[in-house]
Amino acid sequence: MKNVVFETDFKDLTLVKKGKVRDMYDLGDALLMVATDRMSAFDVIMPDPIPGKGKILTQISLFWFDVMKSLIPNHLISGDVADYPDSCKPYADILRGRSMLVKKAEPLPIECVVRGYISGSGWKSYRESGAICGIALPDGLKESDRLPEPIFTPSTKEEVGEHDINIDFEETVRRIGRPLAEKVRELSLEIYRKGVELAAEKGIIIADTKFEFGLIDGELILIDEVMTPDSSRFWPQSDYRPGGPQKSFDKQYLRDYLTSIGWNKQPPGPSLPEDVVKNTLGKYMEALTLLTGTDHEL
Questions:
Q1: Residues of the signal sequence (predicted)?
Q2: What is the residue range of 89's domain?
C-alpha cells in the first residue's frame, strides 16, 4: 500500500490544528485540510494506521459536498493538488487524494448530530431515560429501530482525548443563540434526509451522522467532513435486523473488537492485529464504492 500517512510533517507549512484524524495547515488565504490514516475509537487514537483510510474519507466527503451544494454552501475550494499553492507542490504525492484546499471559517462550537435510528449512545440514553438529548421517544423501541422521524441531538466539541458530551437543544441555544441553533437544526435534518435517500438507493442505511458548520462573514457553511464512515453509522440494507447491533461499513467493527478484548477505552489504545486493520479498511472501501459507484485506487 502506497502513501500511508500517520503523521504529517510539512516543514514549509504552518500547522494550526492537529485533530484525531485531520491536520490543518494555514496557507494564508486558505487552509489545507489533510486526512491522515490515523484511526480513533472511543475518542482515542489507535497506535496503528488504517492504510488509505484518509483517502477514502476525503473522496466520500468530496462526493457529499457536491451532492449537498444545492442545500448549503461549503468550505471546499479544491480537492485537486494541481490547484494548490506552490508551497504545497513538494508534498503533492502525499496530498493527492487525501487533502482539500478549503476556505477559512469560524467553526461553531457544537457537533450537529442527527439520528434516524436508535443506536450507540442514543440507545444507552433511551434505555436509561426514554429520551435522547431531552427528546422523548416512544416506548418499546428496540436497539437499531428506525425512529418515527430523524432527530437533532447535538453534542459538545471536545479536544483530542476528551469525550464529546450530548446536550439538549436549549443548551445549544445558550451556546450559539436561538436563530443560529434553529437554522443548524433545520439544515442538519435536511442534509441528513437527502443523504439517507441517496444512500438507500445504493443499499446503505445511514443510521446517524454528525455535521460541522462554520461562519464566513455571517454566512453559514458546511465544513470538515460529510457523512463518512468516521462520522456516521453505515449499515447494509440487506442485513438490517432491528433488535440488536448491526453489520456495518464503519468503525463499529473496530469498536466491537476493542470491546471484545476488554480494553478500558483509555489511552493509549491497543495495537491492532493485521486482520482487524485489513477488515476495517475493507468496510470503509466498500462504503466508498457503493456510494460513488466506482472503484478507487489507494
A1: none
A2: 14-104
